[in-house]
Design brief:
The complex is a heterodimer of chains A (about 425) and B (about 290). With about 425 residues, chain A is α/β, with parallel strands linked by helices. Chain A contains 16 helices and eleven strands. The chains are: A alpha/beta (about 425), B mainly alpha (about 290).
Chain lengths: ~425, ~290
């Protein structure tokens, strides 16, 4: 009886192996991009895929930005990487692609849909070796957000061009002064620098104030030591000294967003369409988020962009690689599926597929398309990016502690541009 | 007789084999790999022999020096405080009724079994610059006049980390000390009391020598845990502000996992292991002298 039971158990264990004998099993790792972190949403997208490709089984693992990179690094060294990964060019192209861990996806860009991807986007998916390591699904521009109720209470909405949602550096400074005097919230804005989380916000804030750039045009050298950028840092330091801006080396963007949502701060330097959707249930009564561009001296900002798409790790298995490509093509190119895939992110398609938000639960996201014209270059693929990110928030900590902007920037430049 | 002993030995080795294999595979082999890797420029794209270059770079690296100093401060402060506080608490609660003793053991052990992330989230809320309960409490008591950024100020951040570390470190020592104090021979303490010994004399002359093995174990374990302080730093400060909470463990992680410099990280790991070994050896030596 025991032997029979053991035999049955063995047979039961082998059922999945037989079931997959004719198909392929691939693994997808996804960073939290919009609702691609939600089990039910991703399961629904994969169900759509399996309706068209029943012989390809997709296993999903969700990553977070706190430990996701460590998991991927460990997987690379242990040679247990997933087949498909969903993230942006700074990781897929500049990091793992440059290290030779990813497959070239040039053939996907040769498809009818691939050829219609915006040029600024497709260029960011290409490595220095000319190979494409990411096939993009969605994009957005990162912006900042203000509490409209606080601004109205301080009579500071007049400093914002509501038609274009832009403002000048002078307007920004005046608004902060008005907010401080009104005291609607305990603090105006918080320059967070406790870590790298959401650092795109503080970068864009600094280099926009006097129309600087974060890197040179070829994205090969960091340019924080330019006159414009040093002036921008100095302006922020002066605002902190005046008491109309706050610096906090103990928090990162996630904390700053919480402080905005609970009404502690009147503005937050890390925001985008998906964050508006994700945080709508956490807003205090006296908070009305209103997305605006970063202030700049001429009122014409350059916004950081986020581009997210799929990459395929080189696992040496052609069948799995082909299945992974079918998965990517279905999610990004299929006429019915692509809008659903993009909608789940809360961002915008990387090629013209029409408005997907009007009349939906995420209708507010449509307003963020207004920032698309301000999308600057995708400099996040610059060399030494990982070290630069740490150098950046350390620079902010040192600047606000010592006030010696030029010297601290010089230290940063040495660290960031180290080869 | 000889045959029986041989069989017994073989049986013993067979029983030991699983844990021995585990120990070799997951402790000795990685340690060996770490040592070997420390002599290589091992990154995601390179694996070339560089001899002692990683070690040379490390000793010229100002952040490593800062991390080393911070780590030693954490150890030097937290180890004695943990031991003394645990002994004090244990000496109070071990005399209580069993139910009360168990209750307090649970209370102090709770932070140990609670996940580091949950503990950290609570402490982050306590230390919050804007809405934290600590600022509220201190302002109410008139200790501070305006909110302090506990984790954002280089002069307070490390002490906050040490405080949290203490709360998560005292649970196990308290449980061990309660057990050790309960095992002290009561006839000796009673005899000493009858002979006119004071409470302090009873403690230092009778109890302290008997709980010395437990103290030694606690010292070594707490020292190792303090040297390996990582999760708190990663979740709370990322080593900042201005590297004021940078520790060797966190710097190893940063170099290995953020910059993919596995060789350099391994070299730091070797140095950390040597430092821990030296500290532990000193503790063994001192404890042996005290005992003897």
């Amino acid at each position: 009886m025991k032997k029979l039971l053991a035999l049955l158990l063995c047979l039961m264990l082998m059922i999945p192996a037989f079931a997959l004998a004719d198909g392929v099993e691939i693994t997808l790792w996804t960073y939290p991009i919009g609702s691609w972190t939600d089990d039910a949403t991703v399961a629904s997208l994969i169900a759509d895929f399996n309706a068209a490709y029943p012989d390809i089984k997709v296993n999903v693992q969700f990553l977070d930005y706190q430990s996701g990179d460590d998991q991927v690094t460990t997987a690379i060294e242990a040679k247990t990487t997933p087949d498909v990964i969903f993230e942006g060019p700074e990781r897929l192209v500049a990091n793992w692609g440059a290290a030779g861990k990813m497959l070239d996806l040039s053939d996907l860009f040769e498809t009818e849909e691939g050829k219609t991807i915006y040029e600024t986007v497709s260029g960011s998916c290409k490595g220095a070796d000319g190979k494409y390591y990411e096939y993009p699904l969605c994009m957005t521009t990162h912006c900042m957000v203000i509490n409209k109720k606080a601004f109205e209470a301080a009579d500071a909405m007049k400093y914002i061009n509501e038609e274009t949602r832009t403002w000048t550096t002078e307007d920004f400074e005046n608004a902060c002064r008005a907010l401080t005097e009104a005291g609607f919230t305990p603090v105006t804005g918080i320059v967070y620098c406790g870590g790298q989380g959401g650092d795109q916000g503080t970068r864009a804030l600094v280099y926009n104030l006097y129309s600087g750039t974060f890197t040179d045009e070829t994205f090969t050298t960091y340019t924080m030591d330019s006159e414009a950028n040093i002036k921008g840092l100095q302006k922020l330091y002066d605002m902190v000294q005046e008491g109309i801006m706050t610096v906090d080396p103990g928090i990162v963007a996630g904390d700053a967003i919480s402080l905005f949502c609970n009404g502690t701060a009147s503005m937050c330097f890390c925001w985008n369409a998906a964050l508006e959707t994700n945080n709508k249930d956490t807003l205090a009564e006296n908070v009305e988020p209103y997305a605006v561009a970063f202030p700049s001296d001429d009122g014409v900002p350059t916004l950081d962009g986020g581009i997210w798409g799929f990459g395929i790790f080189d696992n040496g298995d052609e069948a799995r690689a082909n299945a992974a490509k079918e998965f990517i093509k279905f999610m990004c190119n299929d006429a019915t599926q692509a809008p659903k895939s993009v909608y789940a992110t809360g961002y915008f398609a990387t090629r013209a597929i029409g408005d997907i938000y009007t009349g939906t639960e995420k209708e507010a996201n449509a307003a963020y398309d207004a920032f698309s014209p301000y999308f600057g270059g995708y400099y996040q693929i610059a060399p030494n990016w990982a070290a630069q990110r740490t150098a950046w928030w350390n620079l902010l900590q040192r600047v606000f502690a010592s006030g010696n902007v030029a010297d601290e920037v010089a230290v940063y430049m040495t660290e960031a541009n180290a080869k | 007789m000889k045959e029986a002993r041989r069989r017994e030995n073989i049986a013993g080795y067979i029983f030991m084999a699983p844990s021995l294999l585990f120990f070799l595979g997951f402790v000795i082999f990685p340690m060996g790999m770490c040592l070997v890797t420390s002599f290589f420029n091992y990154t995601m794209t390179d694996f070339s022999f560089v001899g002692l270059n990683n070690y040379k770079e490390m000793f010229g690296d100002p952040i490593f020096s800062k991390a080393l100093v911070n780590t030693i401060i954490i150890v030097v402060v937290s180890v004695p405080v943990t031991c003394m506080f645990s002994l004090w608490v244990a000496s109070i609660i071990f005399k209580m009724r069993p139910l009360n003793t168990s209750f307090f053991r649970c209370v102090f052990y709770l932070p140990v079994v609670t996940g580091s992330v949950a503990v950290t989230v609570v402490w982050k809320w306590i230390f919050n610059n804007y809405t934290g309960v600590l600022n509220y409490l201190f302002k109410s008591l008139g200790i501070i006049s305006k909110n302090m950024n506990w984790l954002g100020d280089p002069s307070t951040a490390l002490w906050c980390i040490i405080t949290i570390l203490l709360t998560t470190s005292v649970g196990q020592p308290i449980v061990l000390y309660v057990s050790a104090l309960s095992n002290v021979d009561h006839s000796l303490t009673e005899a000493a009391s009858v002979d006119g010994a004071t409470n302090m004399q009873v403690f230092w002359r009778i109890k302290w020598p008997q709980i010395m093995p437990t103290t030694l174990y606690i010292l070594v374990i707490t020292t190792i845990n303090s040297f390996q302080c990582f999760a708190l730093i990663q979740l709370l400060t990322s080593g900042g502000p201005n590297n004021s909470t940078q520790t060797i463990m966190y710097y190893i992680y940063y170099q290995a996992f953020k910059l993919n410099r596995y060789g350099y990280g391994s070299a730091m790991g070797i140095i950390l292991a040597i430092i821990i070994a030296v500290f532990s050896a000193i503790q063994f030596r001192l404890a042996k002298t005290d005992n003897g």
